Amino acid sequence: MRLVALVLCAATLAACTEVEQAVDNTARRGAKGVVTETLATRFPQVPKELITPFTDCIIDNSSAVEIREYAKAAVVGVDDGTVETVRTVLGRPETAACLQAKVLASATT
Q1: What top-level branch of life does the organism fall under (predicted)?
Q2: Do residues 57 and 102 lie in contact, with contact meaning Cβ atoms separated by under 8 Å?
Q3: How many domains does the chain have?
Q4: Cα(54)–Cα(96) distance, rounded to whole angstroms?
Q5: Is residue 16 in a domain?
Q6: Which of 38, 80, 89 is nearest to 59 (CA)?
Q7: 72 pLDDT higher than 70
Q8: 3-state SS class at 45
Q9: Helix spans in 61-92 (H)
Q10: Pick from 60, 57, 49, 52: which is nearest to 36 by CA?
C-alpha cells in the first residue's frame, strides 16, 4: 500500500513539474515582446541588429519573479521598474557571457 502511494506521489510531482515548466516557457515567450520594446525604447546604446540576441539572453537569465515583472508590463506598459529589471539582468555575468557568445556567433556567420 505504501509503495502504491509513493509511486502515485512521485507521478503527481513529475506531472506538476512538467506543467510548471510549460507555464514558465509560455511566460518567457510572452515576456520577449516586453523586453524587446524596453531595449528598443529605453536602451538606445543597443544596436538594432542586436536587440534579438539581447532579448534572448535577458529572458534566458531572468528569474520567475523577473518574468512576472515583464508579464505585468505587457498589461500595464513598460515603466521604470521594468527598465530596472532589464538593467539588473543585463548586469549579471551569465547574461554578459551569453551576449558575448551570441555576438561572436553572429560575427562568424
Answers
A1: Bacteria
A2: yes
A3: 1
A4: 9
A5: no
A6: 89
A7: yes
A8: coil
A9: 64-76, 80-90
A10: 52
Phi-psi region of 41 (alpha: psi -120 to 50; beta: other; left: phi over 0): alpha
pLDDT tens for residues 24-64? 676 777 789 999 999 999 999 999 999 999 999 999 999 98
Q: What's the predicted TM-score (pTM) here?
A: 0.76
Could you tell me the residue range of the domain that residue 31 belongs to? 26-108
- Mean pLDDT of all residues belonging to the chain: 84
Q: Kindly state the cell numbers that stand for 23.
A: 507555464
**Cα-flanking dihedrals φ and ψ of residue 44, to 5°?**
-65, -15
In a domain, 44, yes or no: yes
Domain annotation covers residue 88: yes
Cell 510549460, located at residue: 22
In a domain, 92, yes or no: yes
Place of cell 512576472: 68
